[in-house]
Design brief:
The model has no long low-confidence stretch (mean pLDDT 95). 21% of the residues are buried. With 127 residues, this protein is an all-alpha fold. 83% of the residues lie in helices and 0% in strands. The longest helix has 44 residues.
């Protein structure tokens, strides 16, 4: 695969990785399973149990496992055609996906802040 195509794949594949990792670790649809995982990550009797459940509460940690799944499904390799290409692709995908999630989080914070300010202004005009 040409370098340009590899880079397009890199930035493109990072989008579903970021989406899946963010949704599982932050969105309301997975709140109950996430709360169960948080509880077990804090109260688990063994370190193995605590660490296993923690993986489902941290978007960075979880993005590694989503990346492994995506690499298994697509066979994407970066720069090198052998197993080293999988390693490079994996860490690069995690890095790009986490940049996407950080940007998304910043945008969400700004939007939330704007909504709160608008609500505050609206209430002060009524009162």
């Amino acid at each position: 695969m040409e370098l340009t195509a590899q880079l397009i794949w890199l930035f493109g594949l990072a989008i579903p990785i970021a989406c899946i990792a963010w949704t599982v670790t932050h969105e309301e649809v997975f709140r109950e399973p996430r709360e169960y995982c948080v509880k077990n990550s804090q109260e688990g009797k063994t370190i193995l149990k605590r660490k296993f459940f923690y993986l489902f509460t941290c978007e960075y940690c979880f993005s590694h496992y989503v990346t492994i799944l995506i690499l298994a499904l697509t066979g994407f390799k970066l720069f090198l055609p052998d197993w080293r290409g999988y390693i490079l692709a994996g860490f690069s995908l995690v890095w790009i996906a986490n940049i996407y999630m950080s940007l998304y989080n910043l945008i969400r914070i700004d939007l939330k802040k704007e909504r709160l300010q608008a609500k505050k202004e609206e209430e002060s005009l009524k009162g």
